[in-house]
Amino acid sequence: MTKSDTRDYQRVLDLVVAVLETDEPETLWNLLAEHLLDVFGSRTVSITQMHPVHRRARIEGWAPQRIGPAISEHVERQIRQQHPLVGYLSAGEVRPVSVAGICSGWRGSACYDEAYQAFGTTHQLGLPLVTARHTIRTIVLSRRGADFGADSLAMADRIQPLLVGADRQQHRLRQLREAAAAAGAGDTVQRAAGYGLTPREVTVLSLLTEGLTTGAIAHRLAISPHTVNRHLERIYRKLDTDNRVSAVRMAHRLGLAH
Q1: What is the mean pLDDT of each run of 10 residues along the chain (258 residues)?
Q2: Does residue 49 contact residue 59 with C-beta atoms inside 8 Å?
């Protein structure tokens, strides 16, 4: 890894660590997008959730400022045009990839023409976050000029687990807020802060109350079981408990789980 690569990786790592401690899921990808645009020399970055069967998509995009609802229509058209990433990800592929690397006719395609006309970009890189049967969630970086080469793909490979973890953290925080609002219990994350729990610890605790094992929590959050155990040790200490059962009971008693 070159000094430049090491610096870029460390910047993304520091950012993801900071993101994992935020209690504002709405700002998470704003922070990440700004750094991804810089690290990869991109003009645009989008977080796209696709439903290929129904040809529907939900997108957040930046170029570099946040792009409005029109980008969803743009991406849905590209799904109908059979964008190369749709077939690649629908097949269950999870490695970051250059679109030109999987589509020899990329420059002559309708998707290429539309991306160029809309944003002036000529090359795209797909960085998968979730590949499931009916839902695909991926980061798409776009730029003009040189394609995303081996260095960019190697960087994408290195930071992919961090971004997957950050994405799952955002999803979980949103679930917690929705559950708290539905129960009329206020903001669970803010309530937990009164007991010294960080947003990441709240996420781990919520999964613990669902009965997930250490291994299952690790898989869900894309972290190691060792890291889960470290979070659990801090949770036990802050809640004045010493095991899973008492921690779950305390979480319910304090209104930290529903």
Answers
A1: 70 69 68 85 88 70 73 76 87 93 92 89 94 82 94 92 83 71 58 80 87 87 88 91 88 77
A2: yes
Asked if residue 64 has a cis previous peptide bond (ω within 30° of 0), the answer is: yes
Distance CA 58, CA 135 (A): 11
* Range 185-253 has CATH code 1.10.10.10: yes
Distance CA 11, CA 13 (A): 5
Q: Which two tokens stand for residue 61?
A: 């995009």
Q: How far apart are CA 221 and CA 227, in angstroms?
A: 10
CA 84 to chain centre: 21
**Predicted structure pTM score:** 0.69
Domain assignments of the chain as residue spans, ordered by start: 3-167, 185-253
Q: What is the architecture, at CATH level 2, of domain 3-167?
A: 2-Layer Sandwich (3.30)
Q: What's the chain's length in residues?
A: 258
Q: Facing residues of 123 across strands?
A: 143
Q: Are 138 and 78 in contact (CB under 8 A)?
A: no
